[in-house]
């Protein structure tokens, strides 16, 4: 295997996770409706702040996610998503996402670190990619593998943010579009909590 082959493998596997609808998907749309593509970049950076150290921790063989920690992440993540969803719905009439529109970076960090499914993806699928990268080129391979993955996250979240901003063209239906995004996040949050019990 060479670096080109590793890139292709990482690309194919990564898009399955990146394009799967999740909390970050709908948060990027909602934040983008206020901030355009800039919100997508900031959410992506927040996601990177959580994801890169996690990838390095797995590369160095650090296992720290137990079932109890995963359950706590699900509960707190679910509560966070429900609150954020309600804030989106409440602010839809004014086309503003007041509490979080100025901190999409924090939103990217929060929705990443509080999502046990994202962490589980890295512990399972991500660790397989990391092992391939280590076998190929050691730590450089891990960094190359991560860059091969993260640009897809950035591109997708920026596109979603732009689509959220373009949603303004819906005119009088635009508040309903934003409210729908809020309801979807609430459903995600409830689902996270229900799965614990």
From TrEMBL:
One of its GO terms (biological process) is amino acid transport. The chain crosses the membrane at residues 6-29, 41-66, 72-92, 104-124, 136-162, 174-194. It is a multi-pass membrane protein. It holds the Pfam family LysE. One of its GO terms (cellular component) is plasma membrane. Keywords: Cell membrane, Membrane, Transmembrane, Transmembrane helix. It is found in: Cell membrane. The keyword Transmembrane helix applies. This is Lysine transporter LysE.
């Amino acid at each position: 295997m060479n670096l080109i082959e590793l890139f292709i493998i990482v690309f194919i596997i990564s898009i399955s996770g990146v394009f799967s609808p999740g909390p970050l998907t709908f948060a990027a749309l909602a934040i983008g409706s206020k901030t355009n593509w800039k919100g997508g970049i900031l959410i992506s950076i927040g996601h990177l702040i959580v994801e890169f150290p996690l990838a390095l921790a797995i590369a160095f063989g650090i296992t720290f996610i137990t079932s109890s920690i995963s359950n706590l992440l699900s509960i707190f993540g679910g509560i966070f998503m429900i609150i954020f969803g309600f804030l989106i719905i409440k602010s839809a009439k004014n086309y503003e996402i007041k509490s979080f529109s100025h901190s999409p970076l924090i939103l990217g960090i929060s929705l990443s670190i509080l999502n046990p499914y994202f962490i589980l993806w890295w512990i399972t699928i991500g660790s397989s990619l990391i092992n391939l990268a280590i076998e190929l080129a050691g730590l450089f391979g891990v960094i190359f593998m991560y860059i091969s993955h993260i640009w897809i996250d950035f591109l997708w979240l920026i596109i979603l943010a732009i689509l959220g901003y373009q949603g303004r063209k819906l005119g009088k239906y635009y508040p309903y579009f934003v409210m729908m995004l809020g309801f979807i996040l609430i459903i995600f949050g409830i689902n996270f909590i229900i799965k614990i019990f």
